From TrEMBL:
Protein name in UniProt: prephenate dehydratase
One CC-aspect GO term: cytoplasm
Annotated source species: Roseovarius faecimaris
Gene3D superfamilies: 3.30.70.260, Periplasmic binding protein-like II
EC number(s) stated in the UniProt entry for this protein: 4.2.1.51
GO BP terms: L-phenylalanine biosynthetic process
Keyword Nucleus: no
InterPro entries, per database record: ACT-like_dom_sf, ACT_dom, Preph_deHydtase, Preph_deHydtase_CS
GO molecular function: prephenate dehydratase activity
Domain named ACT: residues: 194-271
Length: 277
């Protein structure tokens, strides 16, 4: 039986592309929301979930950091996917025929130079893959979509122009979630450890909590704060560090962190993706 990997969005979305590139042997399961993708794993409908957490151009994906600690799932991997944007249209359409391009508002903003140079007006769609599907359903050669090449293949559209994004390094980082953690692996490109924590209500608590990572030479690649339960006084921090909790330096840093925090929740220990470097 083919294993499944859940993602938020429609077939042809960039999250689908991440599933296709990282786990080509698995069947991709589209879900309406991030919560639905997580529930698919919790219920056993899917073995894994592929969730976007941050983009090199637009920063973190809203809601994800709130959902991860309560999901009951564990991070077992990460994937970095280049976001190449393509102009897709009905088969046989010429580029100079296109008058409007539909996509998610973020992608429309990323292709401003190309669209202006070709006199193409922007039309806001719900998402990238949905826009490609909409174009495929319309008998209108003046309407095109901005989406992945995978979306073009799925919905039978021609690629009129490839990689038209203004920024040449637009990349999205995804986390792979599973029901069970796996701390046994060691990656060829190193290991990552992700966790959330709340500091104790004492002066300079965060400064003191972070000191253990500096003195033990542990590289923290990400630290973000967000409110808990709508309270301005309760702050939770999300962190990614390089290394494995069993590494002596990491263990010492986490022990020191534990002293200055009221709660630490380990989200996952997983091999670093080669795309990180």
């Amino acid at each position: 039986m083919t294993k499944r990997i859940a993602f938020q969005g429609e077939l042809g979305a960039y999250s689908h592309q991440a599933c296709h590139e990282t786990y080509p042997e698995m069947e991709a399961l589209p879900c309406r929301t991030f919560e639905d993708a997580m529930e698919a794993v919790r219920s056993g409908e899917a073995e894994l979930a592929m969730l976007p957490v941050e983009n090199s151009t637009f920063g973190r994906v809203a809601d994800i950091h709130h959902l991860l600690p309560q999901s009951g799932l564990h991070i077992i991997g990460e994937a970095f996917v280049r976001v190449h944007i393509n102009l897709l249209a009905l088969p046989g359409t010429a580029l100079d025929t296109v008058e409007r391009a539909m996509s998610h508002t973020m992608l429309l903003g990323q292709c401003r130079a190309f669209l202006e140079a070709n006199g193409i007006h922007r039309v806001t769609g719900a998402d990238t893959a949905g826009s490609a599907r909409h174009v495929a359903e319309q008998d209108d050669p003046t309407l095109a979509a901005l989406a992945s090449e995978l979306a073009g293949e799925i919905y039978g559209l021609d690629v009129l122009a490839r990689h038209i994004e203004d920024e040449g390094n637009n990349t999205t980082r995804f986390l792979v979630m599973s029901q069970t953690p796996d701390y046994t692996r060691r990656g060829e490109d190193g290991m990552m450890t992700s966790f959330v924590f709340q500091v104790r209500n004492i002066p300079a608590a965060l400064y003191k909590a972070m000191g253990g990572f500096a003195t033990n030479g542990v590289n923290m690649t990400k630290l973000e704060s967000y409110m808990v339960g709508g309270s301005f006084s309760a702050t939770q921090f999300y962190a990614d560090i390089e290394g494995h909790p069993e590494d002596p330096a990491v263990k010492r840093a986490l022990d020191e962190l534990d002293y200055f925090t009221s709660d630490i929740t380990m989200l996952g220990v997983y091999p670093a993706d080669p795309g990180r470097h």
